[in-house]
Amino acid sequence: MAETTGEATAGPMNGAESLVRTLVAGGVEVCFTNPGTSEMHFVAALDRVEGMRCVLCLFEGGATGAADGYARMADKPASTLLHLGPGLANGLANLHNARRARTPLVNIVGEHATYHREYDAPLTSDIETLARPMSAWVRTGMSAAEIGRDGADAIAAARTAPGRIATLILPANTAWEAGEGVAPVPPIPERERAGDEAVAAAARALASGEPVLLHLGDQAVRGPGRVIADRIAAKTGAKLLAMTSNSRIDRGAGTVPIERLPYPIDEAIAALKGFRHIVLIGATQPVGFFAYPGKPSLLAPEGCETLTLATPAQDQLDALERLAEAVNAPPARAPETGPLAEIPTSGPLDQDTIGAVIGALIPEGAVICDESLTTGRNFFALTKASAPHTWLQLTGGSIGLGIPMSTGAAVASPGRKVINLQADGSGLYTVQALWTQARERLDVVTIVWSNRAYAILRGELANVGARNPGPKAIGMLSLDDPAMDWVSLARGFGVDGRRVETLPAFTDALRHGVATPGPFLIEVVL
Amino acid sequence: MAETTGEATAGPMNGAESLVRTLVAGGVEVCFTNPGTSEMHFVAALDRVEGMRCVLCLFEGGATGAADGYARMADKPASTLLHLGPGLANGLANLHNARRARTPLVNIVGEHATYHREYDAPLTSDIETLARPMSAWVRTGMSAAEIGRDGADAIAAARTAPGRIATLILPANTAWEAGEGVAPVPPIPERERAGDEAVAAAARALASGEPVLLHLGDQAVRGPGRVIADRIAAKTGAKLLAMTSNSRIDRGAGTVPIERLPYPIDEAIAALKGFRHIVLIGATQPVGFFAYPGKPSLLAPEGCETLTLATPAQDQLDALERLAEAVNAPPARAPETGPLAEIPTSGPLDQDTIGAVIGALIPEGAVICDESLTTGRNFFALTKASAPHTWLQLTGGSIGLGIPMSTGAAVASPGRKVINLQADGSGLYTVQALWTQARERLDVVTIVWSNRAYAILRGELANVGARNPGPKAIGMLSLDDPAMDWVSLARGFGVDGRRVETLPAFTDALRHGVATPGPFLIEVVL
Question: What range(s) does the Thiamine pyrophosphate enzyme TPP-binding domain occupy (chains A, B) (predicted)?
Answer without folding.
Answer: 383-524
